[in-house]
From TrEMBL:
It is a peripheral membrane protein. Residues 5-240, 253-497 form the ABC transporter domain. This is Ribonucleotide-diphosphate reductase subunit alpha. It comes from Caballeronia mineralivorans PML1(12). Keywords: ATP-binding, Cell inner membrane, Cell membrane, Membrane, Nucleotide-binding, Repeat, Sugar transport, Translocase, Transport.
Length: 508
């Protein structure tokens, strides 16, 4: 193997924590090398060492046969290592050219050579076979285009090793496939890539070899051709997971309707939908990206406007004019973007869980009963299984799975009994997914009702008691029991049925 990068015995400790111990990684030129592990396994720490952000306590980094020690990020970039973080580092008010050359602008005498920078940027995107409008601000481009600009920025620095940290987390399937085409093209140009992803199907689609970490330690490496999903999961979590999804309960004929959407029309000329959510069930919202799943949920709770809306909570007609009114009615939402919409990441776990409930903790007009707040927070953390040193730990330091649990804990603390989970396991590892699934089932056993919006077909089939399948804003079918299969969901998601059209008209 033509090794371009080798890490040997990398060890790193922080106060009270050994983050990495004896890590090995060997990457060849023109190879896509997957780095796998649960959240907290040490992937990000290892990549920060490779990119000069952290310094290892022990171990060596060998680049092109030469032992290197990177003093900082800029030193690593100068050595040909580029990293595309999951959180973009682009300036939204600047265009693609200005972002790529920020801090190292080309000049002609004392003036900026804008023409040269534009030609250089155009050449990079031509190399990537990506069409980018170089004149518009970044904020006007799609997430996928911003991702490609991050890659172009790294390549403009002549990176020969490219680190891609969860690059598909916010991409649609077609955008992800475009990214994979770019990665395949870069392979032919000899660029080595380290690919971090929680989606194991992506690993088998685009990667050549895999290194697995667990609890900060090296587990092993393997060629993609020599392994399968079951083996990788076992390497990642240290045990076999025969079935990620807990068993579904038997349907209850006496389950009462807690949420009845008798008519919902988002746009004046759009379809009219209706559905019922029952106590103790998980109702899946399935469909292709853009099918109207999330839009329907947001219109129900008043976060988005609706042309027609007739909703009942526990048999009582409700207006639900805005999310605050919906929360008062007992509806909580775990949004798709937990970091920007579900949490205040600079706040502690305690503050995030308590933020909707300060009124009940008020001891006097300007004081909070901190003892009562702490007692309640500790109990709810234990109940949902939040793993953290203390309740005062800052939420930004938690893994994705634990952040999801904090959002859930907030709504349970507010006594919401109808929960909307929008992409509940996006961006979290396989072990944490299983914990979220078990928690959801535990909640439904206690009588909570859940709407689960998910783009992952196995998740929809494995977790839902009933499934509402959306297509172009319309509920095409509601499946239950043995009707819930991958084929049935995809058939309804991609094909209009006369029955659903008639059903939609009948509610107008």
């Amino acid at each position: 193997m033509n090794s371009i990068l080798r890490l040997d015995n990398i060890t790193k400790s922080f106060p009270g924590v050994k983050a990495l111990q004896g890590i090995h990684l060997d990457v060849a030129a023109g190879e896509v090398h997957a780095l796998l592990g649960e959240n907290g396994a040490g992937k990000s720490t290892l990549m920060k060492i490779l990119s000069g952000i952290y310094q290892p306590d022990e171990g060596t980094i060998t680049l092109n046969g030469e032992t290197r020690a990177f003093a900082d990020y800029h030193d690593a970039v100068a050595a040909g290592i580029g990293i595309v973080f999951q959180e973009f580092s682009l300036i939204p008010f600047l265009n693609a050219v200005e972002n790529i050359f920020l801090g190292r602008e080309l000049k002609k005498g004392l003036l900026l050579d804008r023409a040269a920078m534009r030609r250089s940027a155009a050449a990079i995107f031509a190399r990537l076979k990506v069409d980018i409008d170089l004149s518009v601000p970044i904020r006007e481009l799609s997430v996928a285009q911003q991702q490609f600009i991050e890659i172009g920025k790294a390549l403009s620095l002549e990176a020969r090793i490219l680190i891609l940290d969860e690059p598909t987390a916010t991409l649609t399937p077609s955008e992800a496939e475009h990214l994979f085409d770019i990665m395949r093209e870069l392979k032919t140009q000899g660029v080595a890539m380290i690919f971090i992803s929680h989606h194991l199907d992506e690993i088998f689609e685009v990667c050549d070899r895999i290194t697995v970490l667990r609890d900060g330690q090296y587990v092993g490496d393997t060629a993609v051709a020599d392994t399968d999903v079951s083996r990788l999961v076992e390497m990642m979590v240290g045990r076999k997971i025969e079935n990620s999804f807990p068993p579904k309960p038997a349907p209850r004929a006496d389950a009462k309707a807690v949420l009845e959407v008798e008519a919902l029309q988002i746009d004046k000329d759009g379809p009219v939908n209706a559905f019922v959510l029952r106590e103790g069930e998980i109702l899946g919202f399935a469909g292709l990206v853009g099918s109207g799943r999330t839009e329907t949920a947001l219109a129900v709770i008043g976060a988005d406007p609706a042309h027609v809306k007739k909703v009942k909570i526990n048999g009582r007609e409700m207006k639900l004019a805005d999310p605050a009114a919906s929360l008062d009615a007992g509806i909580g939402i775990l949004p798709e973007s937990r970091k920007t919409e579900g949490l205040i990441t600079d706040f502690s776990i305690r503050q995030n869980i308590s933020i909707n409930n300060f009124g009940k903790y008020r001891q006097a007009r300007f004081f909070i009963d901190q003892r009562n707040e702490a007692r309640t927070t500790a109990a709810i953390m234990k109940r949902v299984g939040v793993k953290a040193p203390t309740m005062n730990t800052q939420v930004s330091t938690l893994s994705g799975g634990n952040q999801q649990k904090v959002v859930i804990a907030r709504w349970l603390n507010h006594h919401a009994n109808i929960l909307i989970f929008d992409e509940p396991t996006r961006g979290i590892d396989v072990g944490a997914k299983t914990e979220i699934y078990l928690l959801m089932r535990e909640l439904t056993e206690r009588g909570y009702a859940i709407i689960m919006i998910s783009s992952e077909l196995p998740e929809i089939v494995g977790m839902s008691d009933r499934v509402a399948v959306f297509r172009q804003g319309r509920i095409e079918a509601i499946l239950e029991g043995e009707q819930i299969t991958s084929n049935a969901v995809m058939t309804h998601a991609t094909t209009a049925s006369a029955g659903s059209i008639e059903q939609g008209v009948s509610h107008e």
